[in-house]
Design brief:
The chain has 501 residues and is of the alpha+beta class. It has 2 domains: 133 residues, OB fold (Dihydrolipoamide Acetyltransferase, E2P), CATH 2.40.50.140; 254 residues, BirA Bifunctional Protein, domain 2, CATH 3.30.930. It is 33% helix and 28% strand. The chain has 15 helices and 21 strands. The strands form 5 sheets. Strands 8, 12, 13, 16, 17, 18, 19, 20 and 21 form a 9-stranded mixed sheet that branches. A hairpin with a 4-residue loop joins strand 2 and strand 3. It binds one RNA strand of 72 nucleotides through helix 1, strand 1, strand 2, strand 3 and strand 6.
Length: 501
RNA sequence: GGGCCGUUAGCUCAAUGGCAGAGCAGGUGCCUUUUAAGCACAAGGUUGAGGGUUCGACCCCCUCACGGCCCA
């Protein structure tokens, strides 16, 4: 066992002492008749004077010894219940097991009848108790009080690095962290239910891919030893899901992990949870409507309202969301009219005049994207769809009729953050092949934006792909928004951190 | 990648060049309806790692590791 500190050595000795006293510190079975919340409800529902017996289990979160009586709180997944132990009831020997050998953080089981103390708290008058699992390391728990009904924690376990590295301890002592992940689960359930109700089927496509694609990102590379083949961890699901439309599955979605070998930031984790759906016979306008309805449904189901607080702003997710075309969004906020600059060189000069210094090699599309990121994105607090994007940064989207350089694409923003990305999918195999070739020409071989040619995808498309609208959204970012968390690390259970040493 | 800030007891934090402290947790007592229970006493440290300056370093300098915030 690892090096233990004094506190841990003492607790290990207490576990041995329990064993000597005939109480196994890690028994095989537990018994529960009520959760703590159920016990409280049962007591309140019972007629006055009729006894309610209960056996509850959970972690000891407080212990207050007062001579021959002891008060303690046990916490389970539902809440907390106060235990009341009297030496006169339990006998000196049994009582001593609790008062001398039980510690904060231990998992215990206690049986007795419920009553109300003179301060009004529903409590369990304990007639028997046992250890369920002795905790050796003390939990990094602060001390709590209730002020005006609000729970106030003193010296709470708050160091972000320690919390992420030891998420188990973070979850154990910070109930609001547990709530974030319950909310996250509700968000995913809500999205799934919404899409199922709209006739979509959930599918699973390869995570290990021989050719990566569907997004502009660097992949992680791995290797299959037996096959002597390099494989990529997927950066998106797009090209596989659209193959399914060729196969006649008209509405498909996948919720799963994407991997991008890029920087880590408050809104980027190397692996993150993505939702993508593809809908035959829909275009980006249909998808926009579906998107705002889906996000609103997720908000209602996950947090009970479509009006949320984020970063000091009140955000109303109720449909319909504002719609703004990309050209006016940029013009209004930067004074640069991208339509007046049909070439990369001209746009670059306009940006230089505004004090930017874009890279010489940037395409016009990349320049527009940087204007969007710099001027528009931070200003989009209320949910907004920005639509009609440059073709050269959207190699899988269909061109707008009559506007060669523009594609039918939108991104959804809220809270100053990109939430989702969608387009009318390109389904013309000749055009698609030309786009792949264009990408190869316009971007250097080592450019992360480069899309490798996927011959099999083109073969699928040549069999005929129905017109369709596609959509991708980061579930983590949606969860950030709905839980009011400022960083992606707060909504991922085990976020990526560098190893120490 | 750059800038700034941080890393001290199990947790939360003090100490700015001169004996490293507090609250909580933990220990020993007292206490039969408490709830941040209370009171008393005692204990707890490789100050992230390595190097340097100095009579003397948590503190100043350098390098490194990890994290946070901001910028790219």
């Amino acid at each position: 066992m690892a090096e233990l500190n004094d506190l841990e050595r003492l607790r290990l000795e207490k576990a041995e002492a329990l064993r000597r006293a005939g109480m196994e510190p890690y028994p095989t079975t537990a018994k529960r008749t009520h959760t703590t919340a159920e016990a409280q409800r049962a007591f309140e529902a019972a007629p006055e004077g009729s006894p309610v017996k209960a056996t509850v289990v959970g972690r000891l979160r407080s212990i207050r010894r007062m001579g021959k009586v002891t008060f303690s709180h046990v916490e389970d997944g539902d809440g907390r219940l106060q235990l009341y132990l009297r030496a006169d009831d339990l006998g000196a020997e049994k009582t001593a097991l609790f008062t001398d050998l039980f510690d904060l953080g231990d998992f215990v089981q206690a049986s007795g009848e419920l009553f109300r103390t003179k301060t009004g708290e529903i409590s369990l008058h304990v007639r028997d108790f046992t250890m369920l699992a002795k905790a050796i390391s003390p939990l990094p728990a602060g001390k709590e009080e209730v002020v005006d009904g609000e729970r106030v924690v003193h010296a709470a376990f708050a160091n972000p690095e320690a919390r992420y590295r030891e998420r188990y301890a973070d979850l154990a002592v910070n109930p609001e962290v547990r709530e974030v992940f319950r909310t996250r689960a509700r968000v995913i359930n809500a999205v799934r239910a919404f899409l199922d109700e709209h006739g979509f089927i959930e599918v699973e496509t390869p995570i290990l891919q021989p050719i990566y694609g569907g997004a502009a990102a660097q992949p992680f590379v791995t290797h299959h030893n037996q096959l002597h083949q390099d494989l990529y961890l997927r950066i998106s699901f797009e090209l596989y899901l659209k193959r399914l439309l060729v196969g006649g599955l008209e509405r498909v979605y996948e919720i799963g992990r994407d991997f991008r070998n890029e920087g880590v930031s408050f809104k980027h984790n190397p692996e993150f949870t993505q939702l993508e759906f593809y809908m035959a016979y829909a275009d980006y306008r249909h998808v926009m409507v579906l998107t705002e309805e889906m996000v609103a449904a997720a908000a209602r189901q996950a947090v009970g309202t479509t009006t949320i607080e984020y970063d000091g702003h009140t955000i109303d997710l109720t449909p319909p969301w504002r719609r703004e075309d990309l050209r006016s969004a940029i013009l209004q906020r930067s004074g640069i009219d991208i339509a007046a600059h049909p070439s990369a060189e001209s746009l670059r000069r306009a940006m230089l005049a505004k004090g930017h210094d874009p890279a010489e090699s940037s395409t016009r599309g990349k320049l527009i994207e940087s204007l969007l990121t710099h001027y528009v994105e931070p200003a989009l607090i209320q949910p907004t769809f920005i639509y009609d994007y440059p073709r050269d940064i959207s190699p899988l989207a269909k061109s707008k009729p009559g506007e060669l350089g523009t594609v039918e694409r939108f991104e959804g923003y809220a809270g100053g953050m990109e939430l989702c990305n969608a387009f009318t999918e390109l389904n013309d195999p000749v055009d698609q092949e030309a786009r792949f070739a264009e990408m190869g020409r316009d971007y250097a071989a080592d450019d992360e934006e480069r899309h490798p040619m996927d011959e099999d995808y083109l073969r699928a498309m040549r069999y005929g792909m129905p017109p369709n609208g596609g959509f991708g959204m980061g579930i983590d970012r949606l969860t950030m928004l709905l839980t009011g968390r400022p960083t992606i690390r707060e909504v991922i259970l085990f976020p990526h951190l560098r190893s120490k040493e």
